[in-house]
Amino acid sequence: MTRKILVVEDEAPIREMLCFVLEQKGFATQEAEDYDQALALIKEPYPELILLDWMLPGGSGIQLIKQLKQDELTRQIPVIMLTARAEEDDKIKGLDVGADDYITKPFSPKELTSRLKAVLRRVAPTAVEDVIEVQGLKLDPASHRVTANHLQLEMGPTEFKLLHFFMTHPERVYSREQLLNNVWGTNVYVEDRTVDVHIRRLRKAVSESGHDKLIQTVRGAGYRFSTRL
Amino acid sequence: MTRKILVVEDEAPIREMLCFVLEQKGFATQEAEDYDQALALIKEPYPELILLDWMLPGGSGIQLIKQLKQDELTRQIPVIMLTARAEEDDKIKGLDVGADDYITKPFSPKELTSRLKAVLRRVAPTAVEDVIEVQGLKLDPASHRVTANHLQLEMGPTEFKLLHFFMTHPERVYSREQLLNNVWGTNVYVEDRTVDVHIRRLRKAVSESGHDKLIQTVRGAGYRFSTRL
DNA sequence: TTATTGCTGTCAATGTTCTGACACCCTGGC
DNA sequence: GCCAGGGTGTCAGAACATTGACAGCAATAA
């Protein structure tokens, strides 16, 4: 679970400030100060999001984003543009070529992280470190804890990720295969039935407080996290 | 010993950024966005240092600093000026009226804290950070001592830094890599597993009083300092 | 300088927990 | 009853964490 953000910005003070804030908020960062460095860093493992300065020496940011959108592998990486001013032109151009959001300098840590979280939530909802609570069942990604009515619950890492996924995607059925892709990760060779086992373990972990009822079997389809019986 | 910094800056994003960085570095902050608010906050307990924007609406920063230097009680509070650019004029004027240092925007967190520390060191060498106490476990950065229920504990420098980091960042999981970055410093080539060893040494050092329970393993994620089991 | 002491990072051995697979059981629908 | 699909118990191997030992350093004292 890398949660890595690539920061592309030529001014070192601003770049360092960005990375400092992001790291304090629990993200890993990579730094690039120009087009070439950025390109070199955009490869496996791909960053989860790119913060991109509009004005870059040796190739503007818009050029980089265009290139990313042409490659199948990098197309879906969300990009937030950094602009020096709130210029309508830049804004429109940036969104035209595929930027997911933009931030104008100077920015507060709050604006930075909230926009970042908003974009990540849209693209990969499990990547956001907000506390989620459903009917007294509380999951805190930051401290890596799950509590049911303030009573701490114990579970393995996989069950934690599974629950996290469910709580961020409630009221929707997921097939075993979809769960494997989202919780275990893609290209992982695991039996479908394995999901059953972890569902069981998760149910057991949250059963004391009765929250196992939230994890529902949908016969012939998969599983669902729902507050409705 | 309050270690309180007053930030006087009219642009909210920049002000918030300053406060965020300072708070992460262990300072307490107060915010003012203009001359009047700043004046209202400069009283008992006096801030230990003032970060002052050069251009303030309703009275320039230079005016505020002049006023401070006239009052016996506030004269010795060090002031760092914030200037939009490195203009020689501003620099000279600022230092003339008694500013202790200046920082030009944009600035990196490193520059900010190192200049701030330098000024504090010059003005108040004895200035220390606040004592942190959690459940009878007391860490005093000033005397570089750790006590558990008034009983002194012995540990190495790395363990001390590790504990300090944990106590200032409780209730959050940190991966081995994050701990290395925050405690050992960035770009240090050390094995991940080394963290385990120092965790062990730290636990051992605080174990007699049972405080080792505060340092918790989160399997598959890292370590956490928490008062909850 | 030399000796001593304590700190640090690494490693291998050990202990613990998690994971995925399998076999078997249970249930509901027909 | 029979079947399909889901639930449960168990287990070996993998992954992960802890521990003790050790060698290299750096600081300190003699």
TrEMBL record, chains A, B:
Annotated PROSITE patterns: OMPR_PHOB, RESPONSE_REGULATORY
Matching CDD domains: REC_OmpR_PhoB (cd17618), trans_reg_C (cd00383)
Modified positions (4-aspartylphosphate) in chain numbering: 53
One Pfam family from the record: Trans_reg_C
Positions of the Response regulatory domain: 4-120
Entry keywords, A to Z: Activator, Cytoplasm, DNA-binding, Phosphate transport, Phosphoprotein, Transcription, Transcription regulation, Transport, Two-component regulatory system
Biological role: This protein is a positive regulator for the phosphate regulon. Transcription of this operon is positively regulated by PhoB and PhoR when phosphate is limited.
Protein name listed in UniProt: Phosphate regulon transcriptional regulatory protein PhoB
The organism's taxonomic lineage, starting at the top: Bacteria, Pseudomonadati, Pseudomonadota, Gammaproteobacteria, Aeromonadales
